[in-house]
Amino acid sequence: MSEKDHRPLLLANALLTDPASRTQSRGGLLIAWGVIAEIGAAVTPASAGPDVEVVDCGGQVVAPGLIDMRAVTGEPGAEHRETLATASQAAAAGGVTTIVCTPETHPPIDDPAVVDFVLRRARDTAIVRIHAMAALTKGLKGQEMTEIGLLSEAGALAFTDGARSIMNARVLRRTMTYARDFDALVIHHTQDSDLAGEGVMNEGEFASRLGLPGIPVEAEAILLERDMRLVALTGARYHAATVTCRASLDILRRARAAGIAVTASTSINHVTLNENDVAGFRTFCKVSPPLRHEDDRIALVQAIKDGVVDAIVSDHNPQDVETKRQPFAESADGAIGLETMLAAGLRLVHDGSLDLVTLLRALSTRPAEILRLPGGRLEKGAPADIIVFDPDVPFVLDAARLKSRCRNSPFDGARLQGQVSRTIVGGSTVHQI
């Protein structure tokens, strides 16, 4: 680290927004040696020493960096879609200071050597913090569980089969039991592949009008209900990867009322878009699980407000032209989202659905708590993973200007508000405009 990196940084004249304590106040924040040294109204340019770099934030929001619990990064094996370096650049531009990548690589992250490769590669090439999730089952095939203990020792932060659900309840029970013994977090995608069948969008009237096969919400609800029973049976730490419908929210409420300690997230796409956005057969809006009815979207937003849904993820999944510029039914699932997650989420703030603190809590504090990471808070001694942004700056998204290697954004051409002016990781500025 250079002397410049060691130089203290004071973010003055800021709207300090701490989702951990649910507070907002005017003041300043002093960063030194990679942590928050001082914070509050008394932190001003006048209080700074001669060696402190002072940045006048002009009343912009200063908040903890976002923590994205679910992103496909491609490397190793699919570098044409995304690398750890390009994913980190997109993340920094969008205010994401920590990425947790899924094991859907080639080879999958199901061996300690692959975990080690990803973490070393991230340290060498990425400008934000990157953690790896390891596979729950070998080869992501849902048949034989991985060596959870060895993978944990290698640095795996959590365990998931990505966008694949483990259909064999006996395999999942054994995996949960084994994970419990290592206090490992199980993150599971809940979609019954048999019930989903050949469906490509949400089942209902709109799918019928488009002539596309649908996926019923029951495909999600049935598997989530099964998982709740397995969690009660095993006592495992469990997180539902992407809940998308009212039926799933009812299941989560009942489970928690019964004393089952589970957490859940949804994707930024499912709280800001609905099934109508696939009109015109827009393949950039083809995701898994599919975009749901507007009533489900509204229910998800309310569930975030109520704390039933803990976190919002980008579900960043880069797909190249060959896999997306296809007839809707044949195109690959997935949308990029690291760079647009905050701006898209601010739609909910601007329309009055959520307040800013609640949104940031779902994007930073709760992911940090679930993953047992030290970020997600503005307090003395906390890691200096900080973002500065103006929530009101309007822009039209030009996907060609995004830093991700692929361009499959569902918000291409959309009018958004909210621009990150500075992203700080460990006290060092990694993005600035």
Automatic annotation (TrEMBL):
What Gene3D superfamilies does its record include? Metal-dependent hydrolases, Urease, subunit C, domain 1
Q: Amidohydrolase domain: from which residue to which, for each copy?
A: 350-431
SUPFAM superfamilies with a match to the protein in the record: Composite domain of metallo-dependent hydrolases, Metallo-dependent hydrolases
Chain ranges passing through the membrane: none
**EC number of the protein:** 3.5.2.3
Positions the record marks as coiled coil are none
Boundaries of each Dihydroorotase catalytic domain copy? Answer: 59-245
Please state what class of enzyme this protein is.
Answer: hydrolase
MF terms (GO), sorted A to Z: dihydroorotase activity
Q: Which Pfam families match?
A: Amidohydro_3, DHOase
**Keywords assigned by UniProt, alphabetized:** Hydrolase, Pyrimidine biosynthesis, Zinc
**PANTHER family hit by this protein:** ALLANTOINASE
Protein name per its UniProtKB record: Dihydroorotase
The taxonomy runs: Bacteria, Pseudomonadati, Pseudomonadota, Alphaproteobacteria, Hyphomicrobiales
